[in-house]
Amino acid sequence: MGETLKKRLRQSKFESPYQEAILAVLVAASTLNEQLDRACSEFDISRQQYNILRILKGARGGGYQCGDIASRMLDRAPDITRRIDGLAKLALVERERSEDDRRVVITQITSKGLELLDKLQVTLNVWYNDLRKKLSAQECRALAELCEKLIDSEE
To answer: Torsion over CA of 107, 44, 116 and 140, rounded to 10 degrees?
Structure first.
């Protein structure tokens, strides 16, 4: 086990199976992030901006406050406002102040943002098809379950 990881890290052995598991997850996450970065860069957005658009699409015609977007992010980045500013300059999102509370700003995805997500989805579908060649649906479910154990902070 771990020959690809050993080769990638130029390491002949690991201190423990726990160290090997952690390093494998970190390298796999880094690899996936690099692939997503490349896909997003084709559309002149960052991976984090893609995540914001994906979150706003899930608002189903509504929108979210900046804090709500931040709490849903895959990467908890502190600069959500700056990333939203960039998306607004590209006309991929729009902001509107709440009439009830002028301090509250709601960000919504625009039709241009939805179109970009549709175009990016074509690239992501190729990525998913490549994943199907490497892992079965059952292996993907098992991987997700294992990751869920790592994510669960209540244990």
So the answer is: -100
- Total domains, the chain: 2
* 6 vs 25: CA distance, rounded Å: 13
CATH for 116: 1.10.10.10
List, for residues 30-67, the tens digit of each pLDDT value. 999 999 999 999 999 999 999 999 999 999 778 998 88
Same-domain check for residues 76 and 124: yes
pLDDT in tens, 74-102: 887 778 889 999 999 999 999 988 777 77
pTM: 0.86
Statement to judge: residues 93 and 119 lie in one domain = yes
